[in-house]
UniProtKB/TrEMBL annotation:
PROSITE patterns, per database record: ULP_PROTEASE (PS50600)
Pfam families: Peptidase_C48
Key words of the record: Hydrolase, Protease, Thiol protease
Occurrences of domain Ubiquitin-like protease family profile (ranges): 209-392
Name assigned to this protein: Cysteine proteinase
Species classification: Eukaryota, Fungi, Dikarya, Basidiomycota, Agaricomycotina
Keyword match Protease: yes
Family listed: Belongs to the peptidase C48 family.
Annotated PANTHER family: GH15225P-RELATED, SENTRIN/SUMO-SPECIFIC PROTEASE
SUPFAM superfamilies: Cysteine proteinases
Amino acid sequence: MGPPPDPPISTSFTRSTSVLDKNLQSLKMGQQSRLYKSRPHIYVDRHKQELKKKLEATKDALFKLAQQKRGFKSGRKDFDSYLDYSYMLDNSEKKARFTSPSMIDLRAEYASNEEKVRARRNSDTLNREQWLEKKLEIAQKMLNGPRPFQAWSPSLDDLRLRQRSKDNIIDQRLRPRRLPLPSSLPPEDELKVDSLFKQSGVVSKFAREQVSDKDLVRLMPGSWLNDEIINFYGALILGRSDDSKENGDNAIVNGVASPKKSKILNVHYFTTFFWQKLTRDGYEKGRLAKWTKKVDLFSKDIVLMPVNHNNTHWTAAAINFRQKRIESYDSMFLDRSAVFKVLRNYLDAEHCNKKKTPFDFTGWEDYVLKDTPQQENGYDCGVFTCQFLESLSRGEETFNFSQDDIPYLRRRMAWEIGHSRLRTDP
């Protein structure tokens, strides 16, 4: 006889053991997969609404001060874009970004990803609310602060009678009266511009530049200009200068012939990529001597170039040999001391390369025009830059346009690019 058989296992005990194992397993899985989320404070929505109201109140106060102090004519929507653009420029990276061969519109990047913007800032950078409050405080101090001491002077009537005749004569000699810009092109040209915006593919070619429909659409209201538009316009300026030298045509300065019948200036234009090459690689590493291999830069009246600041803002710069000036024109009127330093170093390196001697800066100055036209939004800097360059190529010392003229100038530029020539009417 063998060993006695094992006692039968209770079915109820087996069932209870399996249920216990399943409960333990599900409990472990639940602990591993459970994610605890922190609940927002019960007053967080109210706090956000209060901050939003405070932010809007600050913007309203700044808008009223801008209208009162600066004569700001644009609407509140444009003013908000101007504040956002100014805030972005103040907090832009110190090191330049070269993300693509063509300037991209970074407004969407700054608007859609606030966390990415904050990651770029320095630790001591003000947030948007603090920045607006600081701007408001500065503006109020300037407006309400004590007026400067008035020195003794003759009465206003005496000065007017004494100087009126002399001033009129001097003004006519230095700045002949210029015609105001129109509000629109002639009707047939307006129709032509509308048809240009409807074209597809390559719209126009000139010299080595070309503009496609995707580029031309940037001349419609509310868009930033890219390298293609600005370089095409610069090529037109350079082409007009070359034609003027060959044909001996007299200049028409803003619709008024110069009393001395001076010609269009002898201009050299550097493309938007020149500044990028100069600031990123330097004169030697960037091999910039080859850029002027067939050009004697020092025989020109003026050298013009658009400047792209950190891929966020356009300004115009010039080396004016006639006036012995390094010039910078900025529609946001920010500090551009770095522009003067870079161009002085370039001018000296170019002279050493071509003339084998250092450049003589005796009598030269860094020049900023106090009455430079200013933009009133966050997207017209490229148009201002093109118009600065075009006016400088005609020997203008001042500019006869403002923010009010930009809608007309955008359509005028579209017509000029579509016809590959600059207009001679105002």
